[in-house]
Amino acid sequence: MSPATDPTPVPAADDKAPLQLLWRDGVPLSAPLPVTHDQQGAALLAELYASAPDRVHVRAMMNTTVDGAVAGADGTSGSLRNPDDSFVFGVLRALTDVVVVGSQTVRAEDYRRPLGRRDLLDPSRRPAGGSRPALAIWTSTGELPSSIEAEWPTYLLSPAEHAARVQERSGMPAEHVIAAGSAREAVESLVARGYRGIQAEGGPSTLGRLAEEGLLDELCVSVSHRTVGGPSPRMIDGQAHDQRWELSSLLVGRHATITRYRRPL
């Protein structure tokens, strides 16, 4: 179409158009339920994603593209962020006791003081009742950005043979370095500190460790409506395993499709 015959430009779509909840608690809804990007919508999602407060729950939350990439052209997941993904992500962070993440992701992304939506913080919706989530970083080197603070609180998960080096290089207090030879030991150590709601946010090798040992109870996947190509790894990168999942909820927005899968009981 030539410029002379172009129709009147259509105004840009609202970046924060409501998400549509199509599937809830394992069954399709008879009609879509709008979820607005505001306090009311956040409260609805907090109820949707809530886990039993009296049991340990390990949730993975990752963003991918339609072609399966977990990082954009700049090598970070941050470049894939969009209003729909950010809205749900903020709700989930307000529901967790501790955020678990690999050190490479911490170095590439901004992981200083993860908090969650402020309108969901009082009263606390975290299983342990805390005002903010702890941060647990998997590392065998202790090489961390200077912005990471022990007092947040922050813990370092390290193989026992590297724990001393990790403590020395990171400068973290010794009591903040958790020697864990396996993903199960890491989870058990966090639970022993009172953290029952655990959210793994990547990278792929961190999710791979948890998946290999059958520790993931839930997968929350935000698929951004874009493609990027390139050699990006898959969401879970680790030893081969075969785990079946059941769709629990489905949200569709203008920018992303967000699914929640649970392990069958």
From TrEMBL:
One of its GO terms (molecular function) is 5-amino-6-(5-phosphoribosylamino)uracil reductase activity. One of its GO terms (biological process) is riboflavin biosynthetic process. Residues 57-250 form the Bacterial bifunctional deaminase-reductase C-terminal domain. Keywords: NADP, Oxidoreductase. It holds the Pfam family RibD_C. InterPro entries: DHFR-like_dom_sf, RibDG_C, Riboflavin_Biosynth_HTPR. The keyword NADP applies. The keyword Repeat does not apply. Pathway: Cofactor biosynthesis; riboflavin biosynthesis. This is Deaminase. The lineage of its organism: Bacteria, Bacillati, Actinomycetota, Actinomycetes, Micrococcales.
